Amino acid sequence: MGIDVSVDVEFRRKIMDMHQGARLMYCYQCNHCTYDCPISKLVGSDVYNPRKLILHSFLGMKGNILGKKENPALWACMTCDTCDEVCPNDIELTNIFYVLRNLSVKSGEAPAAYLMQAKTIFENGKAIPMSGPIERRRGQMGLKSLPEAPLDEIQTILKERGVDKVLPAE
Amino acid sequence: MAEMKLFLGCTIPNRLPFLEAAARKVFDKLGIQTSDAPFACCPEPVGFHSIDHEAWLAMGARNLCLAEDEGKDIVSLCNGCYQTLAVVNHELKEKSAEKEKINAILAKINKEYKGTINVKHFVHVLHDNLPKIKEAITKQLSNLKVAVHAGCHYARPSEILKSDDPWKPQKQRDIIAATGATIVDYELEKLCCGNGAGYYNKETGTEIAKQKIESAKAAGANCIVVNCPACFQQLDTQRGLPIIYLTELLALAMGEDFNSLNMKFHITKKGDGLELKSL
Asked: Which numeric CATH code is attached to A9-106?
């Protein structure tokens, strides 16, 4: 698999501007993040490699991160925050990965399961909606019905951010 | 202790209500007062945060506003909800530019985030009540050999959450020890349950969960005690070792049993010399 060495300055600026992105420049590629990453361990660091994600973000090598649908190099992470804790330079890797994923969503490259969850939240206000059998089971356990969040409030917030525009049609 | 807003999240009330019932029973026994509010999804930190950071902040801030309106802190029964709400609260308290941006969104629903309350995990709250817990315990659970699983989003990122040791959380251990159960150290204690990997690849998540359970078994544990419903589901569905949610454990030590706690809804009811029914 070849490496795309072209640099996208705009992409680099976007990453650096957001959150604590500027801390990226302190990364000296010690590989501690990848060494301790449970996903890298399991799927191989050639498939998922947090050190390379940081390197390519820092250098603005957008082509190695974006431009691919459901790219495992970006989406295999389970956000366990292990890399954040072991990084000797306090780089907030997971926060940077969220920025990259947000960009991937805008490019229409996010995995279906992520978009489906967002759709469920948009339509129900909850990631897991209540169901009839569970409602009955709650009653049997003596649990009260819970107050529900007004859906118009949730949808107003999400529309303000354009989340409705990235949701799958069906 | 002042009344707190109970943040149940999505998984517990809508999938695992027996865990909600166990938590409410333990809170009642300890005199911990909580009330409900029309909270929405926290929102979920693995999936929804990946969609849009600002939408994640604004949804989290809306939930925080409901507790702020009543001047009450939030107590969460779930690691994911705790991490989301605590990190959103931290970010908006620390960064005024972010707060302004999010409040511009919240203004559309006539809400304003102020930054006046704190977010706690239920383990913190229980730990603050440790002397009361010790008084309320009527039965020593000395046949339990517990592998502790604290989950990723309970204490990480530690520079923000600052609530417990990110690698070997102590508060949960102190609470488990009070029940007379033996805590068993195991090699993969720090490992994630694998739930978050399931969005992208279910097999990867399952493999991680299986490795974790095997490691606990190899060290001689006969159950795993968890403090998060996502970890509970992920580990319980593997059928390796019985998984016990922390408030279930406490309720058992306070005189409740398999039937009164509806533990029939656990998928893994026995394993390695322990049967939940016998507790």
From this structure: 1.10.1060.10
